[in-house]
């Protein structure tokens, strides 16, 4: 599916861009990566005075769209809105990936961090991190947690939680965060690791109890909810993120300009508020800082995937 984001005519200094730019989203419309891409595209179009086209190329956990951009002409006119899955999880999760997450791309900028929240049913008495750990130690292998799918960032957040807590928790994979959350509410699964966007309404409605957020800092949408680290697992952190990349070989000057303009877009109060309302934390960065984030998470999740023999379904 392709959508053209309308822009107001506006002159922009410099020679790039001189024509419309395409941002490929390797997932279907409507998800967090797609929503963030459309928001940034709108603002970039206004800054550049050229249309910014969102092109959805879903499939194979983001591999199809990512591979397409890896093969695109490195001139700055075909970009990728990737995420933690496409560039820090897939390389270890799949035996073969049709792109090299490091060599085939030029990191441009981190766009937003997406904290997760550990939730349980409102009637579950084990509704804190220490109580969840205690339950897991009392009944090894019987305490369950759901996620949006095997190998997803939600699954890995739970896997890291269990490993760090020293408990045997059973993972239940669903085809999406919504079904996982629904089964937590119904009492079929003890916990779920899901996005704030998926759970905020249910938490406010009293149908879910937030146990803790997975980020290093408390979430602005739920400042009263502690982080997992604060609540009993010091050093714990496991979040998702989205970020912009270009094909390897894109001129550094163009990469630098796009990165600067992404940071400008993210500084816009309306953009910041829209992302915040979705539970995201705007996080514009330099290309070098984004590369560091990807490398850190690739190492972190490769270790978890290897140690727990996690496989894609």
Automatic annotation (TrEMBL):
Annotated CDD domains: PBP2_Bug27
- Superkingdom in the source lineage: Bacteria
Which residue ranges traverse the bilayer?
none
Q: Which UniProt keywords apply?
A: Receptor
Signal peptide segment = none
Q: Return the InterPro entries for the record.
A: BUG (IPR005064), Bug_dom1 (IPR042100)
Family (UniProt): Belongs to the UPF0065 (bug) family.
| This protein's name | Tripartite-type tricarboxylate transporter receptor subunit TctC
Which species is listed as the source? Cupriavidus alkaliphilus
